[in-house]
Predict the 3D structure of the following.
Amino acid sequence: RGLRDLPRRHEFAEPLWQADELALLEYGYRQVLEAHPEDLDALYHYAAVQAQLGRLESAHEVLGKWVRQAVNQLGMTATEIAEALNDDGRFALLRLPTVDEGPAV
């Protein structure tokens, strides 16, 4: 299993994301991580669920694991990681305003 079922996992998860079924997504990604703790995709999406649920400390913790593994396993640079997170609206609550954006209101 693991990465072999990634397309199927995304196929099942997409409608849940669209319907904001965060509890189901949290349960599903937690199940994957219990069986495969190093699964980068599950770590990333589990962090997104935590961010969407407002569990920002948990989201930061899980993202920290994802970042370390993304660097080690995929060779991602800090810029690539920052762009991936910035482009994903699910992490908006974790963003700090840039100089151009000014303070959050």
Notes: The helical segments are 6-18, 22-35, 40-52, 56-74, 78-87. The chain has a mean pLDDT of 86. The longest helix spans residues 56-74. The chain is about 65% helix and 0% strand.
